[in-house]
Amino acid sequence: MEKSNQFATFLDYALKGSLLLLALSAPISIAATQAAWAIGLLCFIIRTFLVKPTWRKEGFDIAVLVFVGLTLVSSIFSYEPQVSLRKMVGVSLVTIVYLVSENLKDRQTLHKIVATLLISSALVAVFSIANFAVGRNFKVWKLADHSPLKIAGVQENDTIQKANDQSIASPEELDKIISENEVTKLKIYRYELFFVYEVSKASLLNGSNSAEKLGINEWSRGRDVRAAGFYGHYTTFGEALQLIASLTLGLLIVSTTGRLRILLTLALIAYGAALFLTIMRASWLSFIISAGIIILFGASRKTILICAALAIPLILGGLFYLQQKRNVGFVDTKDGSTTWRLTVWREGFNVLTQSPRHLAVGIGMDSIKTHWQDWKMFDNGNLPMGHMHLTALQFGLERGIPTLLAWVIWMFIYLKLLWRRLKDNLDWIERGILLGAMGGTIGFLTSGLVHYNWGDSEVVMIFYLIMGCSLFILRGEKAAIENS
């Protein structure tokens, strides 16, 4: 019995370590985060054989179980069962909610997990800001009329990223590559689009330096690439930052310690600046909505007025920056991404409603990648293939209407629980976490109106981690909290 207790204690420490590693790696690496999740889940499963778990059967848990169960049914009846069943690994990430909520033993551990998540995210945000400040590649501001780059197709304000697949950061590096090859392929970034042009060695001009040989009159380091953190994609980074910034703002609004307020403010500025640099309209709007909800329900009237006054110049600055960097308005019907969405929304809805089978169990997760031609989707192949860029439509199309309803009920119950618990007497940290979770969830759902953000494992793991922390507070044993 003593050895069994010692082993259970070891598992408790292993679980605590995996949760901290999960929080540390979530903003940085999907591989490390999933490894932490897998280790924690294994320890959790083994521990259930030593310590009898308490299984709850509340509305929240039933909604989650029905959502996962119906997704499994949909995968079995998918047009591509093997593909869809493999996607169940991503669906099983929901176990993070219970891995966190059922294995947090005290408030101190909760605080450590939240602090680790915020610190790790702050470091990534600072890295992204520094990366922007230093610049990447080089941007040509002015080209001579006889410039070999201009003759090849390069335009002023273009950013030259690569030459023969080699990253370059100056005219000297570009000149060296062109001089060593008969023909050099240039990869150019221009307002969200990439172009490839060819420049020949023979077209170089006579000059005393590389800029003159290339006909470059003015250049600088490039700062057009949108912030992506360590994820590699700005959409994922923007969605993650929205959740983290919302959690931080929730804590900041209700914090009572002066020094901690300063740290939270600095962290929020870093998250906000990095989010700004993603140039993600949906993530910007979702955070504005999240912040509005958090401030409205958690701050005094004076704070609300101050925040509203500060928001106006920030919003105007954001719109100007958006126009400069992406050459689009906040709502722009001429924007290619907008017209693309309108097309796939219409097509997705048509496929969903054309068959009772589709309405009941959907077409199966990821089966669209091999069967889109059967339904003449993506403008019959004239548009890039992708997903629906609308979470509700994606769930309905891939998994059926019953699964979509289970997800809606799950989110409704979760938000209702958060709202009710916020009316109770809570420690300020717990109140801040719940407030940030509520705002972040609403922001996440808002962004899901134009993105399938539930399909981003990196973002979903952060969402589930925050949900697990919130669920611990919502259900936390009073004795555990009082004795901590």
Structural summary, described in words:
Helix content is about 65%, strand content about 5%. With about 475 residues, the protein is of the alpha+beta class. Strand 2 and strand 3 form a beta hairpin.
Mean pLDDT, nearest integer? 87
Distance between the termini: 27 Å
Q: How many helical stretches?
A: 23
Describe the sheet with the most strands: 6 strands, antiparallel
In short:
This protein is of the alpha+beta class. It has helices at 2-25, 30-48, 59-76, 81-86, 88-91, 95-101, 107-134, 148-152, 171-180, 210-214, 234-254, 258-278, 281-298, 301-326, 336-353, 356-361, 368-371, 377-381, 391-399, 401-422, 428-447, 457-475, 478-483; strands at 138-143, 159-163, 166-167, 183-190, 193-200, 216-221.
What is the strand and helix layout of this fold?
Layout: H1 2-25, H2 30-48, H3 59-76, H4 81-86, H5 88-91, H6 95-101, H7 107-134, E1 138-143, H8 148-152, E2 159-163, E3 166-167, H9 171-180, E4 183-190, E5 193-200, H10 210-214, E6 216-221, H11 234-254, H12 258-278, H13 281-298, H14 301-326, H15 336-353, H16 356-361, H17 368-371, H18 377-381, H19 391-399, H20 401-422, H21 428-447, H22 457-475, H23 478-483
Helix pairs in contact: 1-2, 1-7, 3-20, 6-22, 7-12, 11-12, 11-13, 11-21, 11-22, 13-21, 15-19, 19-20, 20-21, 21-22
